[in-house]
Amino acid sequence: MSSKASRENLTVRALVSNTEAEIIIGDRHANIHRVQEETGVYAGVSEAVRGVKDQILAVTGTVEGVVKAFSLVAYHLASLRVEPTDSSSESPLSPHPPTKLRILMPHRILPDVVGRDGKKIKAIQDSTGASLGVTGKMLLRSTECLVAVHGSPEAIGKAVEQIVMSVPKDSGFGKGTILFKPGTGDRERRARLSSEGRRRRGYLVTNAWCGPSSSPQPLSSEKTQTSAPPVLETRKMSIPEDMVGYVLGRNRSNLAWIRRTARAKINLASQPTQKKGDDAERVLKIVGTTLAVETAISLIEKRVERARRLRGSQAREDEDEEQG
């Protein structure tokens, strides 16, 4: 880890159960205070909400501090799994049973962590001894997904470090992210189900014991009416005019592949926004679900970045030939 990277502050969030939250906080906040004092980070747990089983642990500090903080959090969780006996006492060096942390990860940077064909995430597992499970599906009303890290406290800390360091510096964990809030939509879902239950109760109870009949048609019709279509969003992004060809590909094959992979509609403006040489940009209009839009943007950004790297290496080769 470079000294510059270790000094930069970032925030890493994790989804914890109510029981885990109590352990992390500790009696009279002793555990959370210890984490902050020993690592120099700010660590906090969101308030528990009645009827909601999860809370958010947020840790802000340097990469080194955040990594150490998550190791300590995992240590506290693992310690509760050890049942001391009268004949044995636990030492600081005693191995702890594996535990699990659920890291909240912006969906758009998930490809940076997983890598092509899962090679990067496999390398993280091999080098740290932790096992990682990735859920590609975004959490309700957010652009975050879960990366479950399972292992010893030391392995979890190393894995968190590898995850953080695999994210490009200009992407960041929180940049442009819609944060997940536990319980979002739960009350609305319960209210909707309760309302539908009241509306259908007489009909359903009557027919539940009468066997098949021709009357279920209204229920089928109501289901069709109440099923909401997916919510679509429209987003625009600009790419340098001289990178348009790389994004489109031969016969627009690259753009077609991005559309299919992301399942989004992507339209390219016919003219650049500015006609000033290198400053000219072309606007892309992306329409789809939040997941589709985020995936499309990530794929486009990666193609542009790859094109820049290729140009840079080609320029260096040309310069070497001229000097030679």
Describe it:
- Residues 176-229 are annotated as: Disordered.
- One of its GO terms (molecular function) is RNA binding.
- The protein is of the alpha+beta class and 324 residues long.
- The protein has 2 domains: 3-81 and 96-166, TATA-Binding Protein (2-Layer Sandwich); 233-323, Ribosomal Protein S8, Chain: A, domain 1.
- Helices cover 47% and strands 19% of the residues.
- It has 12 helices and 9 strands.
- It has helices spanning 3-7, 18-25, 30-39, 63-79, 110-114, 119-128, 153-166, 186-208, 217-226, 244-248, 253-262, 290-323, and strands at 9-17, 42-45, 54-62, 99-106, 131-134, 144-151, 233-240, 265-268, 281-288.
- The strands form 2 sheets. Strands 2-3-1-4-6-5 form a 6-stranded antiparallel β-sheet. A 3-stranded antiparallel β-sheet has the order 7-9-8, with helices on one face.
- Helix 3 packs antiparallel against helix 4 and helix 4 (63-79) runs antiparallel to helix 7 (153-166).
- The longest helix has 34 residues, at 290-323.
- 26% of the residues are buried.
